[in-house]
Please model this.
Amino acid sequence: MPTEYPPKVLMPRKARMTRRRKTQLNNIALFVAVAVLGGFAIALGSAHAMGTHSVQDFTRKAAIGNEFEVETSQIALQKSQNDAVKRFAQHMVDDHSKAGDDLGSAMSQANLGEPDTSLDPKHQKMLDKLNAASSATFDRLYVKEQVKAHDEAVSLFKDYSKHGDNDTIKGFASDTLPTLEEHKQNIQQLKSSI
Model:
């Protein structure tokens, strides 16, 4: 009877696994994990890039942003010493009061209830900062916050008007967007003059 070389030794399966085989299995596991996580990241990135906001998310952010515009502009009407800032602030109070009414109407038409206009902690903190600002620093701070707020609003409304999940609210976003873009342009001009 021929002798097997090397002789087979009865060992548990794990012990027989060669280093090469372990490396192969580890590489396969790593590949699968990267593929799964990569696919998940791509899906999240695509969803974000496509702007898939829920109607609740959009209406909450729109209501907060709108209320912030009105409240900060009312403060500007009282505290600013600059006529151009006061004119802009009055324009914001008028346009954003109308936008708030339009949002409420659109939400009612879509059977979504009333918009919640209470400020979130982030916006409340900015509002408190404006309230506490001295007359010497107020105008610059107000304009800075308006630039940031309008950048965010234009992005939000543009995104939802293209990819929103509720046609009525999508229509509101599309109709309001040109006014927000005009505000963004106006505040940029005001920023350069202060």
